[in-house]
Amino acid sequence: TCNIKNVDKYLQTLQLSDETLMDVSIRFRREMDKGLCRDTNPTAAVRMLPTFVLSTPDGTEQGEFLALDLGGANFRVLLVKVMADGEQKVEMENQIYDIPEHLMRGSGTELFDHIADCLANFLEKLGIKDKKLPLGFTFSFPCQQTKLDESVLLSWTKAFKSSGVEGKDVVSLLRKSIKKRGDFDVDILAVINDTVGTMMTCGYDDHLCEIGLIVGTGTNACYMEQMRNIELLDADEGRMCVNTEWGAFGDDGTLEDLRTDIDREIDAGSLNPGKQLFEKMISGMYMGELVRLILVRMTREQLLFQAKTTAELLTTGSFKTMSVFVHECLASAEKVLRGLNLDPSVEDCIATQRVCQIVSTRAAHLCAATLVAVLRQIRDNKAAEKLRTTIGVDGSVYKNHPEFSRRLHKMVRRLVPDCDVRFLQSQCGSGKGAAMVTAVAYRLAAQNAERQRILDTMCLSREQLLEVKRRMSEEMVRGLSKQTHEQASVKMLPAYVRSTPDGTEHGDFLALDLGGSSFRVLLVQVQSGQRHKAKMQQKIYSIPQETMQGTGEELFDHIVDCIAAFLEYMGMKGASLPLGFTFSFPCHQSRLDQGILLKWTKGFKASGCEGHDVILLLKDAVRRRQEFDLNFVAVVNDTVGTMMTCGYEDPKCEVGLIVGTGTNACYMEEMSNIELVEGNEGRMSINMEWGAFGDNGELDDFCTRFDHIVDDSSNNPGKQRYEKMISGMYLGEIVRNVLIDFTSKGLLFRGKLSERLKTWGIFATKFLSQIESDRLAMRQIRSILQHLGLTSSTIDDSVLVKEVCSVVARRAAQLCGAGLAAVVDRMRENRNLNQFSVTVGVDGTLYKTHPHFSSIMQETLQDLAPQCQVTFQKSEDGSGKGAALITAVACRIKSEGQH
Ligand code: 0WK
Ligand code: 0WK
Ligand code: BGC
Ligand code: BGC
Asked: Which terminus of the chain, N or C, has less C-beta within 10 A?
């Protein structure tokens, strides 16, 4: 006969010491790294599969959801009602359906048809066949997912081996079977593993739950891993649930030193030899068989049942795992053995009981070892001294074996005493978890749809852009014609620059550059014949907000102060140099050295200037200071200055474009078309002031409510509508208002609006350029959001903010491209050319710093004006140089006029 000692001796290889278990844990940790690492993942035994489950429920989920739960002992169909009025409540109805063995081993199509039949039956019973409900599918097998609702089966496990499924997307197979029936429809939104479902089900009650464990027919675990560690996915921030598929641990031979002949025998007799070797040492599908094979060997070695086996004992699968559970009590042990037609002695029963204990203890301890590896991974990810976490658990072995859970808990706490681990048994199965994941997916899908609907209002079609171009062309004609000039929104202001430098200009010139993001005073020294050698010295001075919006006198006094400081700095006090004044606002000119300000734009609103000649305002200020005198020669718009600066290098430069704080363009128009100026010969530069395009409503059908909000809160409502959809002063504001709208609808920042985000101008346009730069990782977007007081923003929030920025900037660039297409196509028609090539001199912070603005604008231009070959020349020296060159030309012409 055989007593416990003999059994222990006989089965000593199945009793693992803490050291061995710790070694298994370390081995498994290594396997986890292999699975997470891009290069080793393809050959890793433990696949570490991304599940695309990013967040646990946030309490806003609600609705009715169907769930299927396939792969455990029972196939369930469930209806889960999630109520979110105040405290969240969940009601569930479910029905277990049988999956006949021949379907588990038959053709996949029949299997999925059967699933569809069960679903139909369930809907029939509940009388909801006519509803198209969202459905979550718990499919408890190893699957490669690329998104939540697409999942390719890698290999069957447990008792399943249906043909034609491995390598296929199980969602499409299910959709096909449902379609084939044609009598009901569902919206499959998510496929998840049962470990994930269990984690979500338990996470609903305990937000600390970040691990899902199944010890049932099969065994497996999932946990929330840091995105940056999941190398298969290019994301750094946040966490995603990873399905370890630890059942396959050892399939690459890592556990050969621990696997016993019994393990090899059971594997050899299984449906999938060589596969799921770890699972076959642990889970319910194999535990009974392990015991049976041991009893057979011990019997043959005269250690049990007087060495007499029975047909039942020799039959595969005859010793149910359930029997292992009951063996903890002697009485039922005897009953089970008699059930195998054995005639057990009390010793036999005790010995068998001991065998069961050893087998299930090994299972519990092995499970503990791999679980400890997962706990350590999470602790290290959090760099936490002490990890406090919850493990959601389900499965018939864990639930029904009287000692399994206790042994597992005990060994886990022994191996990682520094972790505070709570085991939470799932009461409702993974179906609830699947419904939760579906509810989150549903919420996210609904939110995405709402976001997209709003963002689509800012996406312009080619037809719309062509229409913008057409209307711009129309307004240009109206601006040029004497009759309609007054009413035209695009004023097409003659700028009295008719010729470009011929290289004979020379001398020192002072230039002022006011109206962009910074005020510059420059000294430009031009040497004749030295086109590329104009030397420049400049100083940037700030224009305080209160000066921009104070009185004209204060503003121009401030400008003269800066000039004085500059001359001082240059050691040229008292010098009286010819001055070119870049004044970047709409001015009516009847000659080069006069500029009547029509209206302020951008951030300026100084009083007593509109309607006045800014040259006289400057002269008065110089006179008031009585310190130096200046020879005011020219006032030019920054677009004209930019065209001239670039034209000095490239004579084909006949268009000037500014996309900075404001936006505007100028170009060389045929004198014969400029009805406001006498003469029909040659060309003259026209300052289009296209920023005002739309002030007569030409853009109303392209304007969104965000544009109206930005316009209403600007200091010149109703004015500069085109500019307010394009330029740097406003893009940040458009984004800010979209973010506020999204937040107020709960589509962003969990609906929590920060005070700072309500502040005008807080979302500087420079953020758009930064946020869209490819180099910028999501975390940097988060730090910008933190700066805006949005400290609790998530990854999804960053992704969405980036998208809003790109939609707003793309529209701006396209609108700008459409406007420019109108300009160059007009010039081509002016010159009766089929093909026209021209250079555009361009300046402005937005154009220069935004990573995609220029390319999108150029694409749009190319598309809308295909007969024009346009080269863009970024102005390196600013328009001050251009103003100085125009001054130099004016001086040359004047001095030639005097000879
Ligand atoms: C119940 C879950 C199901 C899972 C099963 C595992 O709802 O998703 O597959 O537990 O335990 P088993 O039924 O295999 O013992
Ligand atoms: C630099 C030019 C200046 C122009 C500015 C526009 O020298 O005349 O006004 O670009 O760009 P912003 O500074 O508004 O971005
Ligand atoms: C499957 C896993 C599943 C586990 C528990 C294993 O055989 O590969 O996907 O989670 O059983 O049901
Ligand atoms: C002004 C233009 C200027 C443009 C770019 C607009 O607000 O009206 O005169 O060219 O900004 O600076």
From this structure: C
